[in-house]
Amino acid sequence: MTRFVGEAKDVRQGRVRRFPTAKEVKKEMAEYKRTGRHPALEGNNEDNLPALPERDMNRPHVFLDIRQGTEDLGRLVIEVFEDRAPLAARHLLNRCREGTTDALKSVIVHRLLPDAAIFLGTSNGYKGAGVQVRPYQHLHHNHAGVVSLSGDASEVAISLTRALYLDSSYQVVGRAHKGLSILEKLNEAAVDPDDLPMQQVSITACGLTDSEGTHEALDESARRELLRKETPEEAAARLASESKDLRQSVRAALQTGLAQKRKPEGKEPDRSSKKQSSMMSAVLGDLSGESSDEDS
């Protein structure tokens, strides 16, 4: 009877090989000595996971201004992978827009796992729209600064280091490319037994921005800082000036609209225009008289 080795028996019986042959082992070892690469090592090497998409400044970007205790840590600028995870990307963009009821502004970091990730809680206005984020398996938490959403999109996670365990329950939606030093500082923050930061970490502002985070939102931040420091007298003067400017712009718009409705030159003036003009003056008041009163 012909004697078959175990490998030949497996092939004849249609079983999948579980171990390499002696010839393959010798070949792989020779390759390892020559190049330093071995299939067995590479198969267990998580670095073989696909890298995140290449940097693209044309993608949408958002910013998060972060505060720890009473210290403003700075701005985190996030590139959003709208072309790779469109549903999750749109949800994140919407939650960063000014004026939305479920904006990320004012939310706190309710869980901080050192050497893992931070997790932002839902805002006071979040109503749980029932958005289900569908996992996109080619995006991974490969390094620090990867931004992702939970399955129901209610929670935002930002990795502090490589955190592949998040891949199974969080959809990667972007990466932070500016402000990574903020994450390094948060990674050293003390936490209580429930993983809540001992010093509260909060989002003081958020919004859409450009790839460098230098959008006009920076001017808005400066304006908020000035408003915070102004005295009651300065606030009253500012409101009076803004009110006057608003009335003047409305008056100019009304005058332009009335001029377009007037009859061509040489015809009898439209009495209705005169009536509307007098009504406008009654509503807006005599700005020239008001200006003279303010100047006196």
From TrEMBL:
InterPro entries this protein is in?
Cyclophilin-like_dom_sf, Cyclophilin-type_PPIase_dom
Q: Where is this region: Disordered?
A: 18-54, 222-296
Entries under Pfam families matching the protein: Pro_isomerase (PF00160)
- SUPFAM superfamilies per record: Cyclophilin-like
Output the Gene Ontology terms for molecular function: peptidyl-prolyl cis-trans isomerase activity
Where's the PPIase cyclophilin-type domain? 63-208
Bias (Basic and acidic residues) occurs at 21-34, 222-248, 262-273
Recorded superkingdom: Eukaryota
**Name of the molecule in the record:** PPIase cyclophilin-type domain-containing protein
Question: Which organism is the protein's source?
Answer: Coccomyxa viridis
